[in-house]
Amino acid sequence: MRALRLLEWKSDPQLVEVEDPVPGPGQVVVRIGGAGACHSDLHLMREFGPGVVPWEPPFTLGHENAGWVHALGSGVTDLEVGQPVAVYGPWGCGTCRRCRLGMENYCEDPLAAPVPGGGGGLGLDGGMAELMLVPAARLLVPLPDGLDPVKAAPLTDAGLTPYHAVRRSWPKLGPGSTAVVVGVGGLGHLAVQVVRATTAARVVAVDTREEARSLAAAEGADLTVAPEDAAAEIRAATGGRGADVVLDFVGSDATLALGAAVGRTLGDLTVVGIAGGTLGLSFFSVPYELSVQTTYWGTRPELEDVLDLAARGLLRAAVTTVTLDGAVEAYHRMQAGTAVGRQVVVPTD
Ligand SMILES: [Zn+2]
Ligand SMILES: [Zn+2]
Predict the structure, then answer these.
(1) Tally of domains within the chain
(2) 114 CA from centroid of ligand 2 (Å)
(3) Domain range for residue 184?
(4) Ligand with smallest separation from the Cα of 43
């Protein structure tokens, strides 16, 4: 089969021929219906090098995956060939306390995982291929009725990551509150919808690109602003109080500074984007009791929540489909800032 593989650090991925995967005991091979192209893949192929993460190329890209069960290894009894499934992306050891709670994104024994701190498309072969080997049946979530793999694939990261980030701030997002989404890309446009679907907060979306601000407005943002106007407009829109929750899907020096400038006393500033910026922290540099935190991906039960929201029409990834042959170009568009919403690779006709 053909697979889009990162063969070495600091290079474009290559479309190459590889052997079809065969499931071992407890494993499942999924026929991929959709594999989302994520901005973090750009960091992976442009900036990462030896020693940044505890794994190395070569591997097949694609860590947002959904499709149909293609082949079952021995001992897998609760899935059927042909069944539509989403792949839960962070692969932990499966046996530590957090993994048993479905919190494999924060596995406590990563050296016992299939790959430490990674998963399919992150050190092991991912979904930008016709078939993908999933090392344990527990990592698959059956798709609810009405949700096809192309629509479901981006939800496994671009939907799950914002859902996890928003969910932990739910107590601060009651009536009269304001949530700010910084960066309306693949994750951010779904973050706007997650806030709308699961909280009473007013949503302000910030992005440099006019098309991204239009998308945010179409997804239900109450106010969209460019970064240069954001601090003043958000202060004005909140009666000078600031935002209860800021979700930063960029994570640059500039967006972190914006988050601190528009955050509110007792608020949350949650950093999701991996642009690598830093925020100077002192007693006087942020509002009193503003909690600054990072989050990484989400839990398996939360993925079930996200798929349920999508099946009910409350979450919908804005998707553009591309073929395997067009995948490298898709990453180039993402890097140039001309991709709006999520690009999803559909490997088979
Ligand atoms: Zn991602
Ligand atoms: Zn674990």
Answers:
(1) 2
(2) 10
(3) 160-294
(4) 1
Confidence of residue 340 (pLDDT cuts 50, 70, 90): confident
* Mean local confidence (pLDDT), 176-202: 97
Give me the pLDDT at residue 75, please: 97
Q: How far is the CA of 100 from the centre of ligand 2 (A)?
A: 7
Residue 175: how many CB atoms within 10 A of its CB? 8
CATH of the domain at 129: 3.90.180.10
280 and 267 within one domain: yes
Q: Per DSSP, which regions of 38-92 are E strands?
A: 59-60, 65-72, 84-87
Domain identity same for 271 and 312: no
Mean pLDDT of 253-257: 98
CA of 329 to the centre of ligand 1 (A): 18
Per-residue burial over 336-347, b = 16 or more CB atoms within 10 Å of its CB, e = otherwise: eeebbbbbbbbb
| Residue 73 token pair | 């290894």
User: Ligand 1 center to residue 143 CA distance, Å?
Assistant: 20
Is 0.85 surpassed by the pTM of this model? yes
DSSP letters of 222-283?
A: SEEE-HHHHHHHHHHHTTTS-EEEEEESS--HHHHHHHHHHEEEEEEEEE---S-------T
Return d(Cα 184, Cα 263) in angstroms, integer: 18
The whole-number average pLDDT for the span 204-230 is 97
- CA of 96 relative to ligand 2 center, distance in Å: 4
Flag whether pLDDT at 349 surpasses 90. Answer: no
Pairing of strands 263-271, 123-124: unpaired
The pLDDT of residue 348 is 84
Do 50 and 173 belong together in one domain?
no
Sign of the dihedral through C-alpha 59, 63, 64, 68:
positive
Rounded distance from Cα 139 to ligand 2 centre (Å): 13
User: For 317-322, what is the mean pLDDT?
Assistant: 96
Could you say which ligand is closest to the alpha carbon of residue 122? 1
Instruction: Report the pLDDT averaged over residues 239-258.
Output: 97
